[in-house]
């Protein structure tokens, strides 16, 4: 019996998802709850398991294709024929080796797999394998039920065990060669194209989501950017002192948690910046909670995990949460809820922060703060002398449709005052 599986509702507000990776091919056998497909929504990869046991009759969406919620994903044969395909055949009484029934000849992998013949591995492990040019069919999994984990990739390919003397030889088609690591390739240009085109790279997955999101932001909001120079000499000393204690707990203390607290103080003083735009109703939605997005670089592109209720958290708590979100974000393990719902975003390249940038709004938010690198330079002091100081530029981009330049400048001046005298951050938290 054919079972048509449609894209389920995988999160509030999700209308569609992009197929990132199929874990099966047509003709494969699969058991219920085994990985079926990875779908991307709002920058979060969601691994969807199979709802039924059976045989994959037809895949209705290609990798890179967008599917609406309720749209047809796959047809699974679940009747007697499908069940037979999903169940390993018992060994013959003669002791001859047996293999799972299949509707068509397929290459048999030497690596252990699930009882259905499906290689078990998370999307993150599959991506690592692709980047390293490793064929997962040649890797022996050490996880539960033979699941391949990251450590197995470091161990390298394993060859198939030699058949026992009692086992009869089984004819197998040759296995495909391991996939090569992606490299730049010279392409034959179509007529009329320049001859020096090196490569054409499809814009898919997270990169396509980022492209669509940035295009929408630029074409919708009226961006303007305001910049301040901040003397963070006292902050540098305070962070160094606190780091000795915080890092004993296994958490790295960067400047970012202090900046988050200063931003919250600035938003409290200027609440209209802690808001999102509802363009359909032409309304500015001002929020009472401070959910701070922290732009983070990940293998597939920029993601923005969210520190929720930053107003109620200490510098140390924020440091731990930011570290956890960044690590899981780079591993592709964040949920959609952890990547949405921010009210204000901070973007920083740390030591590579440069002198100045004009960040693009994380629409529908109406403000974003760019943090730039700290540089020690000579400055004039209040008494007229010259001495060293640690200086940093901050740039805030705002939606000029609803925020005037003067209000944006006031906000950044407030943030600056807290960073230049960081001890008052602790009074702010009281």
Provide an overview of this structure.
It is a single chain. With 430 residues, the protein is of the alpha+beta class. The protein is built from nine helices and 18 strands. The chain has helices at residues 80-86, 123-131, 150-155, 205-220, 233-246, 256-269, 315-330, 405-420, 424-429; strands at residues 2-6, 16-22, 29-30, 35-41, 44-49, 54-59, 66-68, 72-77, 223-231, 275-278, 283-286, 292-294, 296-298, 301-303, 306-307, 344-348, 367-380, 386-399. The strands form five sheets. The chain has a six-stranded mixed β-sheet with strand order 9-18-17-16-12-15, covered by helices on one side. A four-stranded antiparallel β-sheet has the order 1-8-6-3. Strands 5-4-2-7 form a four-stranded antiparallel β-sheet.
Can you write the helix and strand succession as a string?
EEEEEEEEHHHHEHHEEEEEEHEEEHH
Rg computed from alpha carbons, rounded to a whole number of angstroms: 27 Å
Estimate percent helicity.
10-25%
Spatial strand arrangement across the major sheet: 9-18-17-16-12-15
Structural class: alpha+beta
Which band does the percent of strand residues land in? 15-25%
Number of strands: 18
Number of helices: 9
Average pLDDT number: 81
Uncertain runs with pLDDT below 50, 5 residues or more? 87-116, 159-185
Given the C-alpha coordinates, what overall shape results?
A: elongated
N-to-C CA distance: 64 Å
What summary fits the major beta sheet? 6 strands, mixed
């Amino acid at each position: 019996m054919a079972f048509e599986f449609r894209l389920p509702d995988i999160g509030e507000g999700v209308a569609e998802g992009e197929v990132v990776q199929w874990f099966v091919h047509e003709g494969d056998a699969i058991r219920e709850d085994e990985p079926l497909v990875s779908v991307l929504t709002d920058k979060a990869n969601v691994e969807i398991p199979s709802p039924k046991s059976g045989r994959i009759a037809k895949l209705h969406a290609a990798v890179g294709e967008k599917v609406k919620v309720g749209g047809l994903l796959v047809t699974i044969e679940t009747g007697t024929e499908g069940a037979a395909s999903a169940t390993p055949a018992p060994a013959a009484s003669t002791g001859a080796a047996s293999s799972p029934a299949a509707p068509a000849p397929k290459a048999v992998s030497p690596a252990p797999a699930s009882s259905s013949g499906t290689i078990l591995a998370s999307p993150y492990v599959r991506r690592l394998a692709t980047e390293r040019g490793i064929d997962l069919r040649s890797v022996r999994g050490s996880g539960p039920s033979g699941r391949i984990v990251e450590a197995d990739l470091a161990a390298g390919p394993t060859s198939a065990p030699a058949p026992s003397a009692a086992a009869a030889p089984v004819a197998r088609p040759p296995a495909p060669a391991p996939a090569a690591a992606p490299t730049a390739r010279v392409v034959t240009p179509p007529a009329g194209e320049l001859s020096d085109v090196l490569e054409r790279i499809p814009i898919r997955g997270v990169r396509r989501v980022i492209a669509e999101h940035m295009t929408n932001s630029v074409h919708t909001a009226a961006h303007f950017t305001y910049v301040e120079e901040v003397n963070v000499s006292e902050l540098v000393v305070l962070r160094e002192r606190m780091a000795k204690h915080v890092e004993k707990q296994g958490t790295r203390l960067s400047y970012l948690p202090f900046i988050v607290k200063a931003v919250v103080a600035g938003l409290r003083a200027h609440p209209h910046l802690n808001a999102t735009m509802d363009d359909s109703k032409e309304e500015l939605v001002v929020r009472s909670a401070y959910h701070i997005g922290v732009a983070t670089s990940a293998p597939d592109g920029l993601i923005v995990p969210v520190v929720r209720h930053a107003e109620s958290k200490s510098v140390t708590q924020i440091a731990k949460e930011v570290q956890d979100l960044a690590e899981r974000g780079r591993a592709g393990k964040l949920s959609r809820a952890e990547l949405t719902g921010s009210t204000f975003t901070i973007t920083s390249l740390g030591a590579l922060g440069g002198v100045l940038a004009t960040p693009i709004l994380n629409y529908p938010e109406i403000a974003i703060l760019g943090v730039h690198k700290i540089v020690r330079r000579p400055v004039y002091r209040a008494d007229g002398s010259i001495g060293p100081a640690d200086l940093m530029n901050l740039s805030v981009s705002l939606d000029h449709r609803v925020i005037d330049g003067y209000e944006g400048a006031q906000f950044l001046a407030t943030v600056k005052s807290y960073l230049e005298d960081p001890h008052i951050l602790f009074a702010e938290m009281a």
